[in-house]
């Protein structure tokens, strides 16, 4: 069957491909230390599961309003009010099968052919392909490590054209863990105020997995004059270990939300009623799960940062949020393996880790960060410690 041009423009997500490769190697009997995983290694909290079971038993098994059950919408509005002091009425909230679907729908609802979307790199793998799938043009803006992997006002200003529809801001970010401070958001807002045709898609999926003081600020709250141009996206996947429940949400201007709901009404009608009940319980119920897991992630992050820092030739910055580290392996490019193979790229480097030490990580190029690789620390300290020892051993063989 011939596929459409829009499908031929894009590729399967590299993280899904990496997970598939790990599964294949495991099925061959190999023990792989898997640091590719983009989801919590914890189980969904019991009270959330109980809410889903109750929903099933109460017959909440039918289509819901396209923009979610009133209970879920109230829970989302409550979270945004409590966390950021933001007020969203029902007509400015939408829900979908994960933040991923909500972001995709926002792009589908707004992009015409040739419209540009500014994507700061390193970026979450899906943004450029989502833009391409919706006929847009991703404008990748390099944000180097020396600038904290963050978009600066200068780089933002020089990337904006008449065709710019959106700038994507993922904070805390995947794959870097970098997060924008209030001051940095305010500086970006100053530029955006000069360009009223540009919207901002904020991806705040890791907002609660947060290690620094205070809370991760949200652009819509930092600069209320942008409130009608910010589409804030988030979800329950990462914070509440609910990746499989597929529930995300978006909050923003009413006309955009209406357009997304129209698309959603023709695509899936609504997300799962059962997942909506579970998500409402997650957002409104006890939050000790979040506090406890963040402390576990923090300890793992600290261990991994220390071990990587002790490995000659490797370095990484400490993540402010999320559960990833982007490790700089540039010093190994151009070196040779014991078998005589030359490490030409970060992809060769990660292949060397996998083939010689059975450690799976994802090459930085997949995130627009050549010369780096991504470690997920959403796995046990034992695995992280052993994996770092093996990474060091693999590095030591390169000459
Ligand atoms: N945004 C970022 C930055 C992510 O890393 C991910 C998942 O990997 C998502 C969005 C998708 O989240 P969801 O499970 O809600 O679709």
Automatic annotation (TrEMBL):
Keyword list, A-Z: Aminotransferase, Pyridoxal phosphate, Transferase
Keyword Lipid metabolism: no
Protein name: Aminotransferase
Keyword Transferase: yes
Enzyme class: transferase
Entry GO MF terms: pyridoxal phosphate binding; transaminase activity
GO BP, one annotated term: amino acid metabolic process
Family: Belongs to the class-I pyridoxal-phosphate-dependent aminotransferase family.
Top-level taxon of origin: Bacteria
EC assignment: 2.6.1.-
Residues annotated as domain Aminotransferase class I/classII large: 32-391
Cofactor(s) for this UniProt protein: pyridoxal 5'-phosphate
């Amino acid at each position: 069957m011939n596929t459409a041009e829009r499908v031929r423009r894009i590729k399967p997500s590299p993280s899904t491909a990496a997970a598939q490769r790990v599964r294949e190697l495991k099925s061959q009997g190999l023990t792989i230390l898997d640091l590719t995983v983009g989801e919590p290694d914890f189980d969904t909290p019991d009270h959330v599961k109980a809410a889903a079971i109750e929903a099933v038993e109460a017959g909440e098994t039918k289509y819901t309003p396209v923009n979610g059950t009133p209970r879920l919408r109230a829970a989302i509005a409550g979270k945004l009010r409590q966390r950021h002091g933001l007020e969203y009425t029902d007509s400015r909230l939408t829900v979908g099968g994960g933040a991923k679907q909500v972001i995709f729908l926002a792009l589908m609802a707004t992009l015409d052919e040739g419209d540009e979307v500014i994507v700061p790199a390193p970026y979450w793998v899906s943004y450029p392909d989502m833009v391409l799938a919706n006929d847009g043009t991703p404008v990748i803006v390099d944000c180097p490590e020396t600038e904290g992997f963050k978009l600066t006002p200068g780089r933002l200003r020089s990337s904006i054209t008449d065709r710019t529809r959106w700038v994507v801001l993922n904070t805390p970010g995947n794959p870097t863990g970098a997060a924008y401070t209030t001051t940095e958001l305010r500086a970006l807002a100053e530029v955006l105020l000069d360009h009223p045709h540009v919207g901002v898609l904020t991806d705040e999926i890791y907002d609660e997995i947060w290690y620094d003081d205070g809370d991760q600020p949200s652009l819509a709250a930092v600069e209320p004059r942008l409130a009608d141009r910010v589409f804030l996206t988030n979800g329950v996947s990462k914070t509440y270990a609910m990746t499989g429940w597929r529930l995300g949400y978006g909050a923003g201007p009413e006309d955009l939300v209406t357009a997304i709901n129209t698309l959603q009404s023709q695509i899936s009608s609504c997300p799962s009623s059962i997942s909506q009940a579970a998500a409402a319980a997650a957002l409104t119920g006890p939050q000790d799960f979040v506090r406890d897991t963040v402390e576990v992630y923090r300890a793992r992050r600290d261990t991994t940062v220390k071990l990587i820092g002790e490995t000659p030739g490797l370095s990484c910055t400490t993540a402010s949020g999320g559960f990833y580290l982007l490790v700089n392996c540039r010093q190994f490019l151009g070196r040779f393996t014991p078998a005589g193979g030359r490490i030409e790229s970060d992809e060769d480097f990660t292949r060397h880790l996998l083939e010689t030490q059975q450690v799976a990580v994802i090459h930085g190029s997949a995130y627009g960060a050549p010369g780096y690789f991504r470690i997920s620390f959403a796995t046990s300290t034992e695995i992280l410690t052993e994996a770092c020892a093996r990474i060091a051993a693999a590095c030591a063989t390169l000459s």
